[in-house]
Amino acid sequence: MIGRKNINEWIELIKKKDSRLISRLESIYGQDRTLIDERVNTFLKVATKFRLYFDEDKEVSFVRAPGRLNTLGMHIDHRGGLVNPIAIDKETVLCYASRSDDLIHVHNLDSYYGERKFNITKESPSNKIDTVKSWLAWTQEQTNKRKQIGVDEDWVNKLKAIPVYLQVIYPKRKLSGFEGVLDSNIPARMGLSSSSAIVVAMMEVMIDINHTSITDNEFVNYCGIAEWFVGTRGGSGDHAAIKFSRSGMITHMKTLPRLMIKSYLPFPEGYQIVIFNSGAVADKSGAARQKFNEKTATYEIGEIYIREYMKKHHGSIYGKIIAERDYLSAEEKKFYLADVVECLGQSQIYELLHSLPERIDRQGLLAELPQYENLLREQFATHLEPEGGYQLRSVLAYGIAESQRSRMVENVINASRINLFGQLMNISHDGDRVLFQSPEMETKKRTIDTKQELYLHPGGYDCSLPGIDAMVDLALKSGAEGAQISGAGLGGSIMVLVKDENFNRLVETLRAKYYMSRGIKEDFIVVSPIQGAGQL
Question: What is the pLDDT of residue 234?
Fold first, then answer.
């Protein structure tokens, strides 16, 4: 790490491509000279703009936070499931200098976003927030207030999330602010975690300028909870992927109940991952938030049923897991959806799934689970009631089967069974699929066949779009090994795993049969795994 230097020293070091800088960049990006040269130009641009906007005598640091792509293990990071992400070679860069007060002043070099200022103290809660539940309630109140005045989608909320949450964590300290210049080439609203990259970059800056020491687990946990300030209700898997990924590797890890990086797996040789933008916006700070939060709430509600089922039918197993997690605080969850695949056999899992209601509305939930009324109402507050009720069985079937698929990745990659890896991606996408070639296909998706291996069940998370499903089908017909929606879904992009020799055919097929046929501007990128977030 190069660390803090006067802005003029940084500019000179970047211009002459100092050997220390190049060595550092090679450790991040590998030996790709084109990529390194492109990043050098970005760092120079950001540093030059910092000198223009702020004091040229300032000592500054650089932090970078890449986007991420979860190759398998969708929608389960906040259910205690293993996921398999890579950090991609698109990233947020922030050049910053500390201040003596609590003002945060950032220029975004994308003119669409522009300049933002705020004081940490003024944005922080006036009342005491001492639990995660109270933070959830307060952030929901702030989201509702922003909606009323039409500022809910302002990117400044991504800047505010970490400083405000850290001020809640450290109420007796007045945190220092900073001034900085930010640039990002992570495509927005494509399911590549452009928002979470800003959150991670802000965490890196805040712990640096405030000389705060936190554990790796706290880092990702704080990031995940802090991002609720933006209005979404996700977990911390994206933040962990952004922070802890390694160059050339897939990270096989989980974040709940505690961060665990199980292994780093080599990205398959002779294959590429290509991201195709569907042209449909995936904006979780806007219209898509409703369904995103509904699905998360469905998980939360379903886990109530699962815990009650486990207590009744598998009490000793359940009790052992709870006892092993006695180190967790009273308010932290001690049993997760993904624990089911760790502790039950396949036939037992099928029995559990069949015990769940297929659909149930809010009135039915309150009548059936009166002892959980407060928890239920907390979840109801994040979204409108879904028409026809919550699809508990199909959503939880997806989450459990996806947890099993994701667990398999370590053995699959180590055995070089890339065709099976692609098949797992395809089944995962079928769980999100909303476009079917026949009614029978949809019926099969929602039917739990107890004679079939668990991992082959797609379940029904249903966060795709017809156009995205069409893209996936085209990719598979053109020779791709696997294709699925990227990120939380509801728009954005697909990721495609393809052999090098099939790349041109894949691109030509999507160009002609998706982009040109629909009058959509062609938009795709090839990504490679790079090092996770940190300072230069």
Answer: 77
Judge whether residue 287 has pLDDT over 70: no
Question: Tokens standing for 309?
Answer: 């089922």
- Output the six-digit token pair for 293: 């939060």
Is the confidence at residue 99, as pLDDT, over 60?
yes
The per-residue pLDDT for range 463-500, each reduced to its tens digit, is: 999 999 999 999 999 999 999 999 888 888 999 999 99
Q: What is the mean predicted confidence (pLDDT) over 254-261?
A: 94
Q: Are 253 and 82 in contact (CB under 8 A)?
A: yes
pLDDT-based confidence at residue 362 (cuts at 50, 70, 90): very high
Beta carbons within 8 Å of 444's beta carbon, 6+ residues apart: none
Question: At CA 373, angle to CA 370 and CA 379, rounded to 5?
Answer: 140
Closest CA to 118 of 109, 106, 128, 136: 106
Q: Give the Cβ contact number of residue 262 at 10 Å.
A: 14
Cα within 13 Å of Cα(261), Cβ side = 18
Q: Is the pLDDT of residue 79 over 90?
A: yes
pLDDT digits (tens, 9 = 90+) for 197-221: 999 999 999 999 999 999 999 999 9
Nearest Cα residue to 186 out of 530, 535, 472, 536: 530
Question: CA 416, CA 295: separation in Å to the nearest integer?
Answer: 34
Concatenated DSSP letters for 273-333? EEEEE-SS---TTTTTHHHHHHHHHHHHHHHHHHHHHHHHHSHHHHHHHHHHTTTS-TTS-
Q: Model's pTM, two decimal places?
A: 0.92
Q: Of 14-28, 164-178, 185-199, 496-510, which gets the smallest average pLDDT? A: 185-199
3 state DSSP class of 385:
coil
Its sign, for the CA torsion 426, 432, 438, 444, is positive
Phi, psi of 379 (to 5 degrees): -70, -40
What gap in Å lies between CA 42 and CA 53, rounded to an integer? Answer: 16
Exposure string for 430-468, b = 16+ CB within 10 A, e = fewer: bbbbeeeeeeeeeeebbebeeeeebbebbbbbbbbbebb
CB neighbour burial string for 131-160, b if at least 16 within 10 angstroms, e if fewer? eeeebbebbbebbeebeeeeebeebbbbbb
**Dist. CA 91–CA 329, nearest whole Å:** 35
